[in-house]
Amino acid sequence: MKTTVHPLSAAAIALAATLGAGAAAADELPAFRKGMWEYDRTMERGGAPKQTVKAKKCINPTEDMNRQRAMLSQSGCKFSPIAKSGSTYTYTAQCTMAGLAVESKSVLRFENDGAYRLDVESKEGGVASREVLIARRVGDC
After folding, report:
1. Which of 32, 100, 103, 139 is 20 to 30 A from 78 (CA-CA)?
2. Cα–Cα distance between 67 and 140 in angstroms, integer?
3. CA gyration radius for the chain?
4. Are β-strands 100-112 and 127-139 bridged in parallel, bridged antiparallel, or unpaired?
């Protein structure tokens, strides 16, 4: 049986991941290398079965994170200060999307300039979500 994630929920989960990555990118993380990146994203929401999405795109992750963070900040999202421990960055974000409050806690584990893992736990209207994003640079564009 195929599980469908509510579009707003999927957007909230994606936003939480973006918020987390973008919040750390501005001043805290080393630059990521431009190139062909592969993304493996696993999402869970409210006890529903996991959904996995794979994507591959040519991108400069550092520039993309900075652009997204600027856009979200202008929309009124609030970011906590980043707590860094070794190569792990932890931070929270609070946003309102379509009238619903979305809170997220993100933990980014930086491997090197071509790989990272982002774990995001979110709450939207009392419903918990979890997302794991594994990103790896796989070559030049």
Report:
1. 32
2. 22
3. 15
4. unpaired
The answer to whether residues 42 and 50 touch, using CB atoms and an 8 Å cutoff, is yes
Parse the chain into domains and list their residue ranges: 7-139
Residue 32 per-residue DSSP state: P
**Beta strand residue intervals within the chain, DSSP E:** 35-45, 51-59, 78-79, 83-85, 88-97, 100-112, 115-124, 127-139
The token duo for 118 is: 């982002």
* Contact predicate 21/93, CB 8 Å: no
Residue owning tokens 């990118």? 25
7-25 and 61-74 helices, crossing angle to 10°: 110
- Each of the 141 residues of the chain gets a pLDDT tens digit; together they read 333 333 334 444 444 444 444 444 444 656 799 999 999 999 999 888 999 999 999 999 888 877 887 787 778 788 888 888 989 988 899 998 778 888 999 998 999 999 999 999 999 888 999 999 999 999 999
- What six digits make up the tokens of 72? 């979200």
